Amino acid sequence: MARDFSWIRPEPWGIHVVPADCWIDPSRPVDRALVTHGHADHARGGHGSTFATPETLAIMKLRYATEAGAVPVPYGERIALPGGVAATWIPAGHVLGSAQILLEHAGERIVVTGDFKRRPDPTCPPFEVTPCDVLITEATFGLPVFRHPPVEQEIAKLLSALAANPERCVLVGAYALGKAQRLIAELRRAGHRDTIWLHGAMERMCRLYEDWGIDLGPLRLVSEAGKGELAGAIIVAPPSALNDRWSRRLPDPITAMASGWMQVRQRARQRMVELPLVISDHADWNELTQTVVEVNPAETWITHGREEAMLRWCQLNQRKARALALVGYEDEDD
Amino acid sequence: MEEFAALLDALVYTRSRNAKLKLLADYLRSTPDPDRGWALAALTDGLDFPAVKSSTIRNLLMERIDPVLWTLSREYVGDSAETASLLWPEPTEAPSPPTVAEAVDALSRMTRATVMAELPRLLDRLDGNGRYALLKLATGAMRIGISARLAKTAFAQAFDVSVEDVEEHWHGQAPPYTALFDWAAHGAEPPNADDIPLFRPFMLAHGLEDTQVDLADYAAEWKWDGIRVQVVRAGGATRVYSRSGDDISATFPEIAEALHIDAVLDGELLVRGAHQGGEEGGAASFNALQQRLGRKTVSKKMREEYPAFVRLYDALIVEGKDLRPRPWSERRMALEALVPQLDPARFDLSAVIAAADFAELSAIRERARDDAIEGVMLKRRDSPYVAGRRTGLWYKWKRDPLLVDCVLMYAQRGSGKRSSFYSDYTFGCWDGDPDEGADLLPVGKAYFGFTDEELKWLDRYVRNHTVNRFGPVRETDRSLVFEVAFDSVHVSKRHKSGVAMRFPRISRIRTDKPAHEADRMDTLRKLIRD
Question: Helices marked H in chain A — which ranges?
């Protein structure tokens, strides 16, 4: 039986759930938005009502001061939307509060992954494989060259650079929501108990994570550091601050960056990174393809990233697939 | 191989020259023979494995991965060796990496018939970084910013020997340079190479600045605006070396073909060309010489239109006799005796300037109009020929630079320790009268000439006067005037303004001058002397 799944329609500015007149991660204001997670390219303000996990809504409130119309939906709770559509938020393992959204209508199941990863992350619950008819997946690292190493190996690299240079500091560029807190949590898990210093732009999000019960250990702001306190310390800053005036105050920093892009040498060099840390909050190639196999949908739709290679893989593996031309999703810093 | 792979990786991510030197020196000290010699050869483009090419890697991968996925990956990564190292399956067993010497041995045994079977066996023994290092070493395309000079400096630093001695003994040695390491690391006799046309490190000059010298002690000669070369003949072969010791014989075959006496000669490579602004049969401007630079092969037409010759300054070795320890005056006599025996179309003698005293020399220098003259050299008459810059022996006294006042148009962030500063400046001149609506035309770019204090000030100025941003570039509000110094200016088709400056630098920041009073294109065009 051929099905056209016409009740869900990808448009350049978001995925339209037609019978419920809802939009998933829309990039323009709509009446009713279903949001997968708090990153700026997926979560925007100005909607009439916003359905998301309580964690994501807290992040959105902090970042965009959007509170009106917030509808919290805890993980696993199935809610009824207009037009006979049911929606469930399922952990995606990407950042705090991140979710896949399962939509059910007329006996068909569609899962929108949002951004996701399959590796364990101390700051959020793990990705859950959810059987469905259509899997709408991201493909940020959708090239076979992307095989993320174990996070323990990258954390060890960071700690050994720190130990080898007691007079210097290690300045790690990390995305302010998610990557920074995961990096800190992984450092704690590896036994690093020293104060970790933060760029001012990191502080509020770290506090929010702590409010949600994630222990990040002793944190202080670089602006409060006394003379000599930063030597031998780890400093976490947004990637944009790495080579900016802000970093001039630091004692001979070793410039590091935590990102999946760091796997490619020229990408690291372009960012003037000395210590590339391949730490990603996205699925790598093997995990993307493995996810398609495990979910085993009738169709795979690819939202953003390197969709050509994923499409090719689906074709080679006789899986029906299509690329959606969505605008506004960014992947530069992650 | 793991150490070499770790070194390569560290070099890729290290920007400071000193840090690179330290990484290399540490590696050379701590790695045994012959691995360190092979590694050194790999880093300085000294290895060639004819059976392993970039296309070999592609073909190898195409057997294992879908061609479309390979192409998409290769396009994204931008480098075949790196793409292959990332795509290669991880070994199922713990890696048992070969030594560099084992890898070199295996690679050199491969033929086009065996490479597709043998290269995978090596790759299977390595992790990702190891595979990258192996493939880089095998294809010879390192591109990690290690010049031969840097490698030699690191070698000297590793074993506490002089870089001049390293330069001297290096040439003529083949990888893995065991004799070189025996000499530097273990105090053995330096390798002997009388019958090889070796490069000898150049003697260099300090700027004269405010020093005045007594012409009884110093001889004066012209400083020519070409490229400094050393022409060496030994054992029946002739080589032309550039200042950095690169062999440029193929670029200037007429020079290499013309020397038939065993000698090591120091001179300035120039091209003849009356039509390029030089006098009949004399030397043309540097712009004419530029037509010949950087070519691997030279057409007959090129050789006829821009015939090269060497204007000789000095003789280091003549017919087996090492004159370097002898005083300049003695070497000069030997050179003057030698030149008549050489092909006059390819070699002539750089004249000594007759001047009674410093004041007269200064006047002669001021009057010099020849485009190929860059200034004056002063050489201590009793100076031996020693490598590098030695205080008090040789001075260069360049012609005063040309100056124009330009307006800052764009600024870009620098690299290395200047990475957070807007330190690269593009400036322009008015294409007419600015009060009547004329626009600025960009005429050059400079990133030095200012002090650290001035750089901080300029950085702040740029940030406060930005009107537009294009990626790493900021456009400023065209309010700041630079006095720009440069050596010469030439016609250029590649630049929108139609002119190109040679060696521009920021001479002064003219906060006192309003932008509309900066120089116009006419002023700059009048300085062209092509």
Answer: 54-64, 151-164, 179-189, 203-211, 265-270, 285-295, 307-316
Nearest alpha carbon to residue B403 among B256, B524, B315: B524
Residue B159 has pLDDT above 90, yes or no: yes
pLDDT category of residue B365 using cuts at 50, 70 and 90: confident
Contact flag B76-A147 (C-beta cutoff 8 Å):
no
**For B405-518, where are the alpha helices, taking DSSP H only?**
452-464
* A185 touches A123 (CB < 8 A): yes
pLDDT number for residue B165? 86
Confidence at A131, pLDDT banded by 50, 70, 90: very high
CATH class for domain B203-398?
Answer: alpha beta
Q: How far apart are CA B379 and CA B335, in angstroms?
A: 15
Q: Domain locations in chain B?
A: 2-139, 203-398, 402-526
Q: Strand runs (DSSP E) across B418-513, as ranges?
A: 422-430, 440-446, 466-470, 473-476, 481-486, 488-491, 499-502, 505-510
Query: Which residue among B223, B456, B493, B496 is the active-site one?
Result: B223
**pLDDT value for A330:** 52
* Backbone torsions φ then ψ of B187, nearest 5 degrees: 70, 20
Q: How is A266-282 classified by DSSP, letter by letter?
A: HHHHHTT-SEEE---SS
What is the arithmetic mean of pLDDT over A6-17? 92
For residue B144, what is the DSSP state? S
Query: Please, are residues A261 and A267 in contact by the beta-carbon 8 Å criterion?
Result: yes
Please tell me the number of Cα atoms within 13 Å of A218 on its side-chain side.
Answer: 8
Check if the beta carbon of residue B266 is closer than 8 Å to that of residue B317: no
Q: What is the pLDDT of residues B251-306, one digit of tens each?
A: 999 999 999 999 999 999 998 865 444 444 577 777 778 778 877 788 888 888 88
**Per-residue pLDDT tens for A201-224?**
999 999 999 999 999 999 999 999
Q: Measured between alpha carbons, how far is B272 from B153 in angstroms, rounded to an integer?
A: 36
Q: Which fold has domain B402-526?
A: OB fold (Dihydrolipoamide Acetyltransferase, E2P) (2.40.50)
Measured CA angle at A284 (ends A278, A287), to 5 deg: 140
- The A residues from 241 to 280 touching B (CB cutoff 8 Å) are 243-245, 247-248, 263-266, 268-269, 272-276
Interchain contact, B66 vs A316, CB within 8 Å: yes
Do residues B263 and B256 touch, judged by C-beta distance below 8 A? no
Q: How far is A189 from A150, CA to CA, in rounded Å?
A: 14
Instruction: Kindly indicate whether the ipTM for this predicted assembly is greater than 0.95, answering yes or no.
Output: no
B122: helix, coil or strand?
A: helix
Question: What's the whole-number average pLDDT of chain B?
Answer: 89
Maximum average pLDDT range among A247-251, A298-302, B233-237, B384-388: A298-302
Domain made up of B2-139: CATH architecture: Orthogonal Bundle (1.10)
**Chain B residues contacting A, CB < 8 Å?**
12-15, 65-66, 68-69, 72-73, 76-79, 82-83, 86-87, 90, 413, 415, 419-420
Catalytic annotation on B223? yes
Retrieve residue A144's tokens.
């076979």
Contact B60, B139 (CB under 8 A): no
Name all domains of chain A by residue range, CATH numbers in brackets.
Answer: 8-145+282-323 (3.60.15.10), 151-277 (3.40.50.12650)
Chain B residue with minimum CA distance to A161? B10
